[in-house]
Design brief:
The complex is a heterodimer.
Chain A lengths: L3 H17 L3 H27 L6 H23 L1 H22 L7 H19 L3 H23 L5 H25 L11 H27 L3 E3 L3 E5 H22 L4 H29 L14 H5 L2 H15 L5
Antiparallel strand pairs in A: 1-2
Helix pairs in contact in A: 2-3, 2-8, 3-4, 4-5, 4-7, 5-6, 5-7, 6-7, 7-12, 8-9, 8-10, 8-12, 9-10, 10-12
Chain B lengths: L1 H20 L2 E3 L10 E5 L5 H9 L2 H4 L2 E6 H4 L3 H11 L2 E3 L12 H8 L3 E4 L17 H8 L5 E7 L1 H4 L13 E4 L9 H18 L7
Parallel strand pairs in B: 1-7, 2-5, 2-6, 3-4, 3-5
Antiparallel strand pairs in B: 6-7
Helix pairs in contact in B: 1-2
The chains are: A mainly alpha, B alpha/beta.
């Protein structure tokens, strides 16, 4: 029989072994993220003293929500591909539900909405069985064809074409594109990865969110010339270019720590990922403006809906995956 | 039994309702935590009741009871058991209305005992778009128990999750909007007009979670 002390040691050993099995770069990276977040909390504690008139409720809510989001992502990354796949299945589900609840969908399409969720499950099944060949064609080709056919069978032809486009856009962005993040976790250990598959996902998330934040800060500090006034009146050239430069440099200098990219591949990522993040943000904003809402739901306090947070990712995830697959990964 | 109901609603029904509806709520702090109080909501789906019960702050939940048609919900079997034990309905004998029977008596008793009564004044489920005319029972209750505030609640989107006649529930985001409380001022027409207007105002503020 084990004594209490020995059992305690066994628990500690298990924890030590769990962390010893992780990539040091990912652990350090998570440490830096938590450090930045702690710094942000410290700043919000000081701000009211510097600017007594200001209302920092939203900022505080945002940061509190970040703790939750980062805890979920970090936990999943450390546990492994199964947890990341499960987490992004939930992310895709919520994003798709938010999208199809607001987008113009007709009464007759109620069961087509259900079909979209079924397509989502099948899409994630291909990640579970690690079959990229099927993943790649299932939604862009076959769901693309089957959904309009099912709609035709139901027989409501009013706004038919526009509705097929609504479904396709929703499924590709919320399911197919976000699914790439989980699929990155299936990169085998045999590939030459500096920080494992978790490092790949970690760096995508960091680069995308850093780009959002950098654009915001550059825009706040130096923003003067509006870039897409009809869609996002707060976005400026200064914010876009400053964010581009900041994220580009981050990718160029930190990218090799987490990804196998170097040279041209790394340069391509550094140039295009910040643009993709900006494009995702602006494109989703145009859709929200069309629908007439500011936020896609109230799920994440301070941020809005899940899709408000993941808009950039729906564009950066496939690009990041394809650049890695083209320049470095043999598995895909 | 009260604890059993609360456990089922909080631990089982609440997560399921969140998955199917997202369950966004605006003005949750305006929901009363003790009775007597009357919650007035539009009605498009059985999901309406589930949504209200699962969104309700746990502290007030024990007192929330939906007024529901006895002819539909107390037909016996599992439906009756669920209606009585989990949903906690106050039965209204809709079919006996107009035959000289005071069908609202059980509701009035519940209010006087300090319950929070959820009422769908349309009397039945609609198509989830426009509200049909309100039955005047809600005004009679407000008149009989004037100390009970009347809280207008707009339920957006539940009719899409499970419409009248639907069998398969489909996940769609819903939003609950809770308005400012109303009090009985002595006149039925004024009360009904004011109530309807408050409901329409909440409807106008709801996100476009509706069919195109």
């Amino acid at each position: 029989m084990l004594g209490a002390v020995e059992r305690g040691n066994f628990g500690m050993d298990a924890i030590t072994a769990f962390f010893a099995g992780q990539s040091p770069a990912v652990l350090w990276g998570l440490g830096v993220v938590l450090g930045v977040l702690t710094l942000a909390v410290a700043v919000t504690a000081i701000l009211p003293a510097l600017k007594p008139a200001g209302d920092f409720t939203n900022l505080r809510q945002r940061i509190s929500s970040w703790w939750v989001m980062i805890a979920l992502l970090a936990g999943a990354l450390l546990i492994g591909w199964q947890a990341v796949t499960a987490l992004f299945l939930v992310v895709s589900f919520i994003a798709l539900r938010e999208f199809l609840s607001l987008a113009p969908v007709r009464r007759e399409d109620r069961l087509i909405v259900l079909a979209a969720f079924v397509a989502m499950l099948i899409n994630y099944l291909f990640i579970v069985i690690d079959d990229y060949g099927l993943y790649r064609v299932f939604i862009p080709t076959y769901v693309f064809l089957i959904i309009p056919f099912l709609m035709a069978c139901i027989g409501q032809t009013r706004a038919f074409l526009a509705t097929t486009a609504t479904f396709h856009w929703a499924i590709v962005t919320c399911v197919y594109n976000l699914g790439y993040i989980a699929f990155l976790m299936r990169t085998p250990a045999s590939e030459a990865l500096p920080a494992g598959a978790a490092g790949l996902v970690f760096f995508l998330l960091v680069a995308t969110e850093a780009n959002d934040v950098a654009q915001y800060i550059w825009g706040k500090l130096f923003g003067r010339r509006k870039i897409v006034p009809k869609v996002s009146p707060n976005k400026t050239w200064e914010g876009f270019l400053g964010g581009w430069l900041t994220t580009g440099l981050l990718i160029w200098f930190v990218g090799p720590v987490f990804t196998p990219l170097s040279g041209i591949g790394l340069a391509v990522l550094a140039i295009f990922l910040p643009v993709a993040g900006f494009a995702g943000d602006v494109t989703m904003s145009a859709i929200k403006r069309d629908i007439g809402v500011k936020d896609t739901s109230a799920l994440i306090p301070g941020h809005g809906g899940l899709l408000d947070r993941a808009d950039s990712l729906t564009f950066t995830a496939p690009l990041y995956f394809h650049i890695l697959a083209y320049f470095a990964l043999g598995h895909f | 039994m009260r604890l059993f109901r609360r456990l089922v609603l909080v631990l089982i029904a609440r997560p399921i309702a969140r998955i199917f509806t997202g369950a966004d709520i605006v003005g949750r702090e305006r929901l009363p935590l003790k009775g007597p109080a009357i919650l007035v909501a539009n009605h498009a789906s059985h999901v309406d009741t589930i949504l209200m019960l699962t969104l309700y702050p746990s502290r007030g939940l024990d007192w929330v009871r939906p007024a529901a048609a006895a002819d539909y919900f107390l037909r016996g079997g599992l439906i009756s058991w669920l209606s009585n034990t989990i949903i906690g309905i106050v039965p209204v004998a809709r079919d006996k209305a107009g035959a000289g029977v005071d069908v609202l008596a059980p509701v009035r008793e519940a209010l006087k005992a300090g319950d929070i009564i959820l009422i769908f004044p349309e009397g039945t489920r609609g198509d989830g778009e426009a509200m049909s005319d309100f039955k005047s029972g809600v005004a009679r209750l407000a008149a009989d128990v004037p100390e009970a505030p009347v809280i207008p609640v707009w339920l957006q989107g539940a009719g899409r999750v499970l419409p009248k006649g639907g069998v398969v529930p489909v996940p769609m985001n819903c939003t609950v909007l809770v308005g400012e409380p109303l009090h009985w001022q002595g006149d039925k027409t004024t009360f009904m007009t004011e109530l309807r207007q408050r409901m329409e105002e909440l409807h106008a503020k709801a996100p476009p979670q509706r069919w195109a």
